[in-house]
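Notes to self, Transporter:
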Amino acid sequence: MKNSLLKQVILFVLLAACAAFSAGILFFDVVILKDQVNEISTTEIVQEAFLVITAVLFFIQSRRQKSQRGGFILAAGFFCCMLFRELDALFDMIHQGAWVYFASMLAIYSLCWAAFTPKTTLNGLNALVANESFPILMFGLVIILVLSRVMGIHFIWQAAVAGDNVRLVKNLVEEGIELFGYSLCLLAAVRMSCSKLALA
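result:
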């Protein structure tokens, strides 16, 4: 009973730290660096770093857990595709929208691996879903894929903010929410990597 309570208190502190960290990075960008939170900003760089670490953690699990490899490769491939999307400005230097081609190739590779090893794919996905950190991962993805997109709709901020600060406010809200989501996904991936359940 005492251990369960302590675990929940620690989890609350970790989640609060993720929220505070996200706000702190935005503060650093806007107040210290006087940045508009554009494609090249501290916020974007931290997002991309979190995606790299999350993908690498799942890839490491795929190497360690042969019986669950397909599922972890799918997870690693998914976060790598998200990374390519975040790096779209870099890929645009090759060709406009080039990130789609790289993400598509990686997605096909991951799906083929999963299809050719269906047992390890199901084992891995079951381990992910059964893990106590999976709700944090899922909540992080909802924040990234849904909430940040909805809150980033331009005409909402046009109606709410006067003057030339519309883009700054929009970027601030959208990228800040995204960063919080990525921090939750990273937290979940770290906890899964350390969890006995994920390694079962």
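- The chain has nine helices and no strands.
- The chain has one domain: 2-194.
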